[in-house]
Write a structure and sequence with these properties.
The radius of gyration is 21 Å and the shape is globular. The protein has helices at 5-8, 39-44, 58-68, 81-92, 109-116, 133-138, 162-170, 196-202, 230-239, 247-257, 260-284, 304-313, 335-349; strands at residues 24-25, 75-78, 98-103, 119-124, 144-150, 177-181, 206-211, 224-227, 295-298, 316-317, 319-321, 325-329. It contains 13 helices and twelve strands. It has two domains: 5-30 and 261-349, Alpha-Beta Complex (Aspartate Aminotransferase, domain 1); 46-257, Aspartate Aminotransferase, domain 2, CATH 3.40.640.10. It is 37% helix and 15% strand. Strand 5 (144-150), helix 7 (162-170) and strand 6 form a beta-alpha-beta unit. With 364 residues, it is an alpha/beta fold. Helix 4 packs parallel to helix 5 (109-116) and helix 4 packs across helix 9 (230-239). It starts with a helix and ends in a 15-residue tail after the last helix. Bound molecules: pyridoxal-5'-phosphate (PLP). Pyridoxal-5'-phosphate is lined by residues 29, 80-82, 106, 150, 154, 181, 183, 211, 213, 219, 224.
Length: 364
């Protein structure tokens, strides 16, 4: 059997590690709360899973179109926003083309690009873990078919502001697709974040992506959505595997949308926990970038294995990116005490001058 060489070389998607015994699984940026009240019942609906779902997810698209004040054809729904990224990239990029994105960012981007046959152009984040939008604009050339902007950025938690995004878009040719990945948008309280919902209406080459996996707590059902230009979304629909969004997922997403107040209450609990945990690790002496999503980023570098080991001994399973850092999702309340204890041990473990040191009680 002859495999495409770039596919044969692809690592399989690495999922966040499950937790053993009483450890907390904080490795996949999941919502610790169950689905909103009534959502599981609504998902099952009349139980007619002997029938195929509506391939167009018309009810959910209509609800989203009303929410974003766009036409139904300017909404596309997929089995998770990750599948929408795949569809959009397949629609615009192939062999010989390039896709520009920040790095480090969402771990799925490199393989999604490789599958299209295109080449990844990874633009390093700035020293303070943010998108380097000038360098990203400089990286756009004749072969560039798409650029990905991830705000808040997974795993570093930084956002792209309105001013930054607008001046960046001024430098992106209209023929280049810009995917604005806002999987964690609901957790942002900083008003300077770019208003993706308005920007997408002004720039036909921008597609906004959101998901029900994070704030709405529906990661297990796989449903996300895109808002953008109809022709672009039609192209994405053409590359999609038909019928991937189940009727259960559509029902659950519709019911969840109708319960935004409850969703926002839970988000504010998680945002409160985020501040509490951020304060705890900073007070211990760790330098942690301002988090805008539902996770913290520990820039552990070569000490990533050791830092992840300390966290694990304290009952926290984070997501370790070898040689880079550890991402810890904001989950259960018990994590605060565990993180506080782990942070003190991490500070003791690191050599003076390590980039992860430098909170208020800087070591050395
Ligand atoms: C930045 C980012 N985009 C997209 C996704 C995909 O989410 P889903 O496919 O569950 O909608 C994730 C999931 O972790 C993510 O971190």
């Amino acid at each position: 059997m002859r495999l495409r060489p770039e596919i044969a070389g692809l690592p399989a998607y690495r999922q966040g590690r499950p937790a053993a015994s009483d450890a907390l699984k904080l490795s996949s940026n999941e919502n610790p709360f169950p689905p909103l009240p009534g959502v599981v019942e609504a998902a099952v609906g009349d139980g007619a899973i002997n029938r195929y779902p509506d391939a167009t997810a018309a009810r959910l698209r209509a609800a989203l179109a009303a929410r974003f004040d766009v036409d139904v054809d300017e909404v596309h729904v997929g089995a998770g926003s990750v599948s929408l990224i795949a569809q959009l990239l397949l629609a615009v990029a192939g062999a010989g083309d390039e896709v520009v994105y920040p790095w480090r960012s969402f771990e799925a981007y490199p393989s999604l690009v490789t599958v299209t046959g295109a080449t990844s152009v990874q633009v390093p984040l700035t020293a303070d873990h943010r998108h380097d939008l000038d360098a990203m604009a400089d990286a756009i050339g004749d072969r560039t078919r798409a650029v990905i902007v991830c705000s808040p950025n997974n795993p570093t938690g930084s956002i792209v502001t309105e001013t930054e995004l607008r001046s960046f878009l001024d430098r992106v040719p209209e023929s280049v697709l810009v995917i604005l990945d806002e999987a964690y948008r609901e957790f942002v309280v900083d008003p300077s974040i770019a208003d993706g919902a308005s920007i997408v209406r002004e720039h036909p080459n921008v597609v906004l992506l959101r998901t029900f996996s994070k704030a709405y707590g529906l990661a297990g059902l796989r449903v996300g959505y895109a808002i953008g230009d109809r022709a672009l979304l039609d192209a994405a629909r053409s590359t999609a595997i038909p019928l991937a969004v189940t009727g259960l997922a559509e029902n659950a997403a519709l019911e969840s949308l109708a319960r935004d107040d409850e969703m926002l209450e839970r988000v504010s609990v998680l945002v409160g926990r985020r501040s509490e945990q951020l304060d705890a690790v900073r007070a211990a002496g760790l330098r942690v970038p301002e988090p805008h999503g539902n996770f913290l980023w520990l820039d552990a570098g070569e000490q990533t294995g050791a830092v992840a080991g300390v966290l694990e001994r304290h009952g926290i399973i984070g997501r370790a990116f070898p040689g880079s850092g550890v991402r810890i999702s904001i989950g259960e309340q018990e994590a605060t005490a565990r993180l506080t204890a782990a942070a003190a041990e991490i500070v003791a473990l690191l050599e003076p001058g390590h980039p992860l040191l430098g909170g208020p009680s800087r070591k050395g």
